[in-house]
Amino acid sequence: MTFPKSTWRLLKSEAAPGPWNMAVDEAVLEAVSGQKSLPTLRFYSWEPVCLSLGYAQALDEVDQEALMQNGWDIVRRPTGGRAILHTDELTYAVVGPQDDHHLTGGVLASYRRLSKALMAALLNLGLTVEALPQPQSPGMNNTMKDPVCFEVPSNYEITTNGKKLVGSAQARKRDGVLQHGTLPLFGDLTRITQVLSFPNEHLRQIASDRLLQRETTIESFLHRVLCWDEDAESLITAFKDTLHIKLELTELTSQEIQNAEKLEKEKYAHHSWTVSI
Fold first, then answer.
1. Of 129, 149, 185, 235, which is the active-site residue?
2. pLDDT at 145 over 70
3. 227 part of the active site
């Protein structure tokens, strides 16, 4: 499918704490929904390491003492899904109005369109990837109760050699769409199990082993560490070519910054939001 040419905004944000990253995503969503900003493609990373919870995920799935001992942050996302440990990765966000032709047709239809750009970027980097419907196995329901987001690929998640590579989630609010997701570049994927609650260490080890069977990084496939900028440039090219869009590199507006500061203070960095479920 060839889409009509359109202009989007490109944001390349500096590494920031989790509450600020989520506040910016929501501030951009509000601006785009109110037609105060162009549809936006944003890339960012996390400093310090941060555990993010899905919107409806229970806080008691987190070992908060272990989280504190590691010096890692925690934030609750505005999107669904399970826990993700944000480190050694590139995070992307696509924000646009619901009537944008790339985002119409509901969550799955829009995700499949955007996934074409994600897959093209990874193919350009030399990976072999696919996004196929994932069958419901007999043990799927029990596995989905696990707190780790990457454990099982959901429908049309991007995989390589059968292992989940890109995790994405979407929220629709105020006539706008936010889809953000992570591309793990390198590192030990089992670190997340250090800060999640398990009845005993044996079950923690089982969860770690299962993660390595079902999740992967770009480094594991390419056998080299891919830097953040190289990954970002591949994504930029793929979004331009695959979705037929023009990207204009710019910055957050003063209104978006002001709104993000308010959202960070009153929502994402506030204890009541983190424990809201």
1. 149
2. no
3. no
